[in-house]
Amino acid sequence: MISVSRASGTLQFPAKFILVAAMNPCPCGYLTDPDRNCSCSPSNIIKYQKRISGPLLDRIDLHVEVPKVKFDKLTSDQTSETSAEIRKRVEQARGFQQTRFKAVNIITNSEMSSRQVKELCQVDDKTVSLLRQAVSQLNLSARSYFRILKLARTIADLAGTEKIKLEHVAEALQYRPKVE
After folding, report:
1. Segment 114-137, tens digit of pLDDT
2. pLDDT of the residue at 157
3. Do 101 and 44 belong to one domain?
4. Listed range (14-18, 104-108, 171-175) with the worst mean pLDDT
5. 47 and 65 both lie in a single domain
6. I need a surface site. Which of 66, 92, 121, 148 has the fewest CB within 10 A?
């Protein structure tokens, strides 16, 4: 819920949404382009990237760099996973979540409280060690730690596995913002 308070009173609005946002890596857009040179100074790049605050970035679960698609790939006959196949995996993962949360008033892993994450996102000692190292080296907040576990739970659901494995947490860590 979002509460808007004014002199005349307070209104509450539902606020369940998925944010999808895009941003260039730098003002000119060519910082990570293998074919074109970036014309931005290092200070301009830092200034540009800092326009989005750390606390806001911390609340975004997936940070994915999307490279330019090469012409050969666009014209290739190679097939990838179909939308129908992806849909089937997503529906299966949603089924796992529906079963997992049948006794509580949530639908998806992203809605879990930190208490629920501790209860439902158990990991082995090797994975705890990876998380400890990530929290230390990447300077992750408590919020980021719990978001990583929720995302790892979703990755495990999409893989059709009951337990969160080391590779699920490692993949979830790859979706955190890159530290410059």
Report:
1. 999 999 999 999 999 999 999 999
2. 98
3. no
4. 14-18
5. yes
6. 66
Could you tell me if 18 and 31 are in contact, meaning their C-beta atoms sit under 8 angstroms apart?
Answer: no
Distance CA 7, CA 5 (A): 7
First to last CA, the chain: 34
Taking the C-alpha atoms of residue 150 and residue 93, their distance in angstroms, rounded to an integer, is: 13
Quote the pLDDT of residue 179.
Answer: 58
Per-residue pLDDT at 178 exceeds 80: no
**CA 95 to CA 49: how far, in whole Å?**
38
Which one is predicted more confidently, 75 or 97?
A: 97
Residues 96, 170, 110, CA angle at the centre, nearest 5°? 40
Q: Are residues 51 and 87 in the same domain?
A: no
How confident is the prediction for the chain on average, in pLDDT? 92
**Position 105: which residue type?**
N
**Residue 180, in any domain of the structure:** no
The answer to whether the CB of 149 falls within 8 A of the CB of 164 is: yes
Note down the domain range covering 134.
83-174
DSSP, residue by residue, 75-86: H-------HHHH
63 and 175 in contact (C-beta within 8 Å)?
Answer: yes
Tell me if 42 is assigned to some domain: yes
